[in-house]
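ok so I'm stuck.
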Amino acid sequence: MNYVGNIIRPPSEAYSIILQVTLGCSHNRCIFCSTYKGTKFGIKDDETILKDIDYASRVLKNHKKLFITDGDALVLPQKKLIWLLDNINKKLPWLERVGIYGNAKSLKRKTLDELIELRERKLGIIYYGVESGNDITLKYIKKGVDAATLIEQGQKVKNAKIQLSVTVLLGIHPPGLGLEHSIDTGNLLSKMDPDYVGALTVIVVEGTELYKMQQNGEYILPSKKDLLLELRNMLYSTNLSNGYFMSNHASNYVPLKVKLPEDKDRALELLDKAINGELALRQEWMRGL
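replied:
not stuck anymore, here's the structure
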């Protein structure tokens, strides 16, 4: 397989075929992200993509899922995505699901009918980077979108009957805005009603704009207790009809996989113990991106 630069995939795609179709991220302005800095957004040529699909068809027959990278390959024009999925399905007919990263920008370019077209070609899940439901925080991190738009585009994915996996970030807010960030994010998730929520804790990476802001005092990383309070408030404010709220990423101090709505009270009790010092937290050396 032909890979260029950093290849990032969700934890749930660990055993998937990874097909790199785009390079970098079309937005690439978020202050916390270093993944594609210095990489100009681009699309691989058809010949390279087809060679990788052909290789997968010969060598990777035991894999049931395929994931398309880079950062927001969903931004591709609809005709290109149809061409891509048609070739994937022709060469790898045994696949059960195709996944892809998306953001509000790429989703706004797709109508509901176009998303349905993609779902009919086995696009089964979109991983949606939301980060926050608080408009002040979204502007602060240069997300380039407001909460209302994030909700609208997430609801469109659900209406297309494509699974929606949303990522949010603990600790990413401006100083003193932890309560508002956590509650507003929970309210956003409730309105969007995704199938999966992945809550990660921000880790300041050297070289990012967030790192520079931390150095000059414009950003303050919350304490462990404040991060736990954010997680509790976010979960408390999140009401899903039938989904999972997870904080089992390595960046978090308390790993949770909560089936909502039935397991919510149990998880809140566990977080209360962690906040009160009655539960051991993940050690620093075990945390990472």
